[in-house]
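Severity: low
Component: inverse-folding endpoint
Summary: output formatting inconsistent between runs
Steps to reproduce: submit the following structure tokens with default settings.
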């Protein structure tokens, strides 16, 4: 069973505003490494090792991360047009990651602001924003999600 933030029991799949969570339990986990994502201001080689070389695509950062990592996302606007074509803008499968938005984009990892409106995931009414499968821990914080398209099943 899974539980919502309000303590409601679900059948293991929770779908809300384009977000699908299945078999996921959220708790704070220690981040082993920091992987950086910035929609603007980064330059090649785009490997996520610093703000200067940040990934520009969130899914690339997820794919290049290991369980326990923190994905630090610079404040900005992220749309389905700058994501890997799939059913979901961001797909976490079997990796226990922390995704945190609202970073200013400097420092290690730098200043984090708790205002979630500064980092926005926009599905443009065409794609699910976030899908999480087979994760036992992790955190999604400081990210506003809008116009995602939910899918059943």
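Observed output (run 2 of 3):
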């Amino acid at each position: 069973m899974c539980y919502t933030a309000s303590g409601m029991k679900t059948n293991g799949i929770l779908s809300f505003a384009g977000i699908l969570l299945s078999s996921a339990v959220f708790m704070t986990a220690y981040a082993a490494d920091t992987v950086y994502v910035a929609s603007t201001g980064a330059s090649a080689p785009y490997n996520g090792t610093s703000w200067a070389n940040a990934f520009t695509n969130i899914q690339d950062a997820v794919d290049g991360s290991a369980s326990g990592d923190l994905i630090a996302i610079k404040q900005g606007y992220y749309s389905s047009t700058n994501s890997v074509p799939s059913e979901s803008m961001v797909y976490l499968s079997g990796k226990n990651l922390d995704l945190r938005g609202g970073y200013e984009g400097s420092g290690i990892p730098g200043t984090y602001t708790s205002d979630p409106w500064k980092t926005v995931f926009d599905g443009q009414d065409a794609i699910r924003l976030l899908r999480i499968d087979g994760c036992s821990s992790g955190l999604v914080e400081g990210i506003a999600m809008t116009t995602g398209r939910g899918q059943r099943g």
